[in-house]
Amino acid sequence: MDKSEGRLIDLPRIADPRGNLTVAEAHSHLPFGVARVYWVYDVPAGECRGGHAHKACREFIVAVSGSFTVTLDDGREKQTFLLNHPYQGLLVETGVWRTLDDFSSGAVCLVMASEPFEEEDYIRDYGDYLEYLRGR
User: Fold this and answer.
1) Pick the catalytic residue: 27, 52, 54, 85?
2) For domain 3-134, which CATH number applies: 2.60.40.10, 3.20.20.80, 2.60.120.10, 3.30.360.10?
3) d(CA 108, CA 43)
4) Which of 26, 61, 79, 134 has a CA positioned 20 to 30 A from the CA of residue 11?
5) Where are the alpha helices (DSSP H) in the chain?
6) How many Å apart are CA 101 and CA 75, to the nearest integer?
7) Which whole-number Å values give the CA distances from 46 to 62, 103, 104, in the listed order?
8) Whole-angstrom Cα distance, residue 109 to residue 84?
């Protein structure tokens, strides 16, 4: 898998005895402007999230609390990332299948997306995804 399809990015950490702070600024820490932010939480044990790819949307995924794994699949090989630091996120480029699983109790997954929600941007069937890759 090409490293440019998914890579970990460390964000600035401002240490303070009252509590730490991390910031993510569009076009500075993130390589895109943020059009949408959403978070996933209260994931039951054993459940999987994701299971799709995007044609146009890029995403930056952060475990703001707890931990989970993200598996990226480019149709040739898979790479798995453990997200468990609120100051680190995973950049996921377009055309990459992703699944999120192994959520710890209390985990919160924050996603910053480059595009607003558009159902047409999603590829939700893995067979359709492989066909999409052949047509690129």
Assistant:
1) 52
2) 2.60.120.10
3) 9
4) 79
5) 126-134
6) 19
7) 20, 8, 10
8) 10
Would you state the pLDDT for residue 2? 62
CA angle 70, 72, 73 (to 5 degrees): 150
- Whether residue 3 is predicted with pLDDT greater than 60 in this model: the reply is no
Show me where the domains of the chain are located.
3-134
Which two three-digit tokens encode residue 22?
Answer: 């991390």
Kindly state the tokens that stand for 45.
């044990």
Q: State the residue for tokens 């299971």.
A: 51
Q: Is 85 a residue of the active site?
A: no
State the first-to-last Cα distance of the chain, in angstroms, to the nearest integer: 16
Tens digit of each residue's pLDDT (9 = 90 or more) over 65-120: 999 999 999 999 999 999 999 999 999 999 999 999 999 999 999 999 999 999 99
Counting runs of H as helices and runs of E as strands, what totals does the chain give? 1, 12
Tokens in use for 66?
């707890």
Structure tokens at 20: 């730490």
All residues at 6 or more sequence positions from 86 whose CB lies less than 8 Å from its CB, including other chains: 22, 62, 63, 64, 65
